[in-house]
Amino acid sequence: MENNKQPKLINPSELFNPSPYGFSHSISVESPSIICFISGQSGGVGESHSLAADFKTQVQDALNNLEIVLQNHSMTFDNIVKITLLIVDHNQEKLQIWTEEAKKVWKESFLPTSTLIPVSQLALPGMLFEIDAIAVKN
């Protein structure tokens, strides 16, 4: 028997509205489903993993890399229920760039849950941004 249950987005009215900031407070999933845990994707491009020098391009490249992984699981950004963002030397300007780019790939009606962690550095020199994800497909 096929399960037609979709992830359920819940933003309790007692909490602040997270939508303008590009995330949701919670999403519940009723199984059986395919759950895909996606490792951190950075702005590195190609086999050489070359990194752009600017934050915005790294965010765009990381989202492109994330989309490639999703496509290989026959999924889209709409399947993502949880993301974790790692931002080197986080500030409001970087948050604004992230929010603008997130709005290009997610519909405001179904934003993933999100955790943002400011960090002093990432795995490779010059890496400014990393995103991991959990995606669900019924």
From TrEMBL:
Assigned EC number: 3.5.-.-
Record-given protein name: RidA family protein
Keyword hit for Hydrolase: yes
SUPFAM superfamilies the record matches: YjgF-like (SSF55298)
Gene3D superfamilies in alphabetical order: RutC-like
Hydrolase listed as a keyword: yes
One Gene Ontology MF term: hydrolase activity
Keyword annotations from UniProtKB, A to Z: Hydrolase
Similarity comment: family membership: Belongs to the RutC family.
